[in-house]
Design a protein that fits this description.
- This protein is 26% helix and 27% strand.
- By secondary structure, the chain is α/β, with parallel strands linked by helices.
- Helix 1 (17-30) runs parallel beside helix 2.
C-alpha cells in the first residue's frame, strides 16, 4: 500500500513523520481505557492502532470500509496472538451490531472518522448499540480542517453539539501535535472520552 495523504501506512510515511506521530499519540492515549477490555476499533485502517490496543486488551475487532487496508492489517500484524478479528463495514450503511455485539463491547475507539461521514448520526447510534452500559467511546475529530477526503469540516462547537446529542457525559481534550491536554481553544483535533448511559 502507498500513502496517499489520508490513511496511515506504516513504513511509507518517512516524509510525514508528524502526521504519523499524531495518529500514534491518539492510540497511546486510549490504551488505559482498553486494559483487559473487549475493544472495537472502528475505521481501523491498516491496523497499526489495533495492534497497539491488542497489547493490553482482552480481545477485539477492527472495522474498516477499505479491503486493502484490512488485508494490510491481516498480513502485517499478529495482535499478540489474542482473539482479534477484522471485518469490512460501511459505517453509513452497515450496522456494527449485526446481531452479535449488542451491549457487549467495553471500549470503542474511532479516530478521524466522523468527518468522513455524510450521516454521522447513523454511526454514533450504532456505537451506542454495541457499547455496554457505562462503556467508553473514544473518538477524535479534526477542527476547522477542510479536506478533499472529508465530507464535513467541523467547528469545535459543531463537533461537540453532535456528540452531546448522544452522550451526556463526555470528557473533552485537545490534541496539538504529539500532546493531548485538557480542551483549549487552540487545538487542531478534538478528542472525546464519552461514557455510554
Amino acid at each position: 500500500m502507498e500513502f496517499t495523504g489520508e490513511r496511515v501506512v506504516p513504513g511509507k510515511m518517512e516524509n510525514y513523520i508528524g502526521t504519523y506521530v499524531e495518529h500514534l499519540t491518539r492510540y497511546v492515549f486510549c490504551l488505559g481505557f482498553c486494559i483487559n477490555k473487549k475493544v472495537m476499533d472502528v475505521a481501523c485502517g491498516t491496523g497499526y492502532g489495533l495492534e497497539m490496543i491488542s497489547s493490553v486488551a482482552q480481545c477485539g475487532l477492527g472495522v474498516d470500509i477499505d479491503q486493502k487496508s484490512l488485508d494490510f492489517a491481516q498480513k502485517n500484524y499478529k495482535f499478540y496472538g489474542k482473539n482479534f478479528g477484522l471485518i469490512k463495514r460501511d459505517l453509513e450503511k452497515d450496522p456494527l451490531n449485526s446481531g452479535f455485539f449488542a451491549k457487549t463491547i467495553d471500549t470503542v475507539t474511532s479516530f478521524e472518522t466522523i468527518e468522513h461521514l455524510e450521516n454521522p448520526d447513523f454511526f454514533i447510534q450504532n456505537v451506542k448499540e454495541i457499547l455496554k452500559d457505562d462503556g467508553t467511546f473514544i473518538f477524535s475529530i479534526p477542527i476547522n480542517n477542510p479536506s478533499k477526503y472529508h465530507k464535513i469540516a467541523y467547528t469545535k462547537q459543531e463537533a461537540k453539539a453532535l456528540m452531546e446529542k448522544y452522550f451526556t457525559k463526555i470528557q473533552w481534550f485537545s490534541q496539538v501535535g504529539a500532546h493531548i491536554i485538557i480542551d483549549n481553544e487552540n487545538s487542531t483535533f478534538l478528542i472525546g472520552v464519552a461514557t455510554n448511559n
